[in-house]
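agent: user wants the full assembly modeled, not chains individually. Plan: 1) parse entity lines 2) check alphabet per entity 3) run joint structure prediction 4) return tokens. Steps 1-2 passed, two entities, 226 residues total. Proceeding.
--- entities ---
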Amino acid sequence: KQEVTQIPAALSVPEGENLVLNCSFTDSAIYNLQWFRQDPGKGLTSLLLIQSSQREQTSGRLNASLDKSSGRSTLYIAASQPGDSATYLCAVTDTGRRALTFGSGTRLQVQP
Amino acid sequence: NAGVMQNPRHLVRRRGQEARLRCSPMKGHSHVYWYRQLPEEGLKFMVYLQKENIIDESGMPKERFSAEFPKEGPSILRIQQVVRGDSAAYFCASSPPGVGDEQFFGPGTRLTVL
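--- prediction returned ---
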């Protein structure tokens, strides 16, 4: 059974810092991996999708990498801003399925 | 292109009543998923549907919960005889045809059972 773990559970940084969020998964037979952002009381916003054949994806100040064989992904946020404060969720789709298995998230707070 | 739409956004029910949650996928999306987020817990998959078919219901509770995605109209998640433990945020997502495509989420329905 796939399990997704995110470290750290919470993170507080001053504005302008570069930061890395970590995600690990137990079964490397994944089809893709998605990073989401969730604001309090809101839905999920898809940030990046990495197919299993890819090593990384970039969107603006965000860069996500995938090491499928070791079961790890990182989300790099450059030059953090207070508006980046949210919970970041990592989720994987196992090969042959479409259901997403989510990690418990990293709660990020960027101090102005 | 409107995003995934869910209604109602907030729903209050008393124990024993029925709850009906609706989801309209993005235009061109034929796959719908339901997830549940219990208080202080992570998101858990419930069910995956295509038009008129349930494809994967491995995450659905065995009793009281059902889902449908009719040929016409929105997908419906139905909870019969609600209990306090059903209080949660229920999210719907949709994706276009094709395996392993990106899922886009709606704003969720927050169900409170009194």
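agent: reporting back. The longest strand of chain A covers residues 30-38. Chain A touches chain B at residues 31-32, 34, 36, 41-46, 49, 51, 89, 91, 93, 97-105 (CB under 8 Å).
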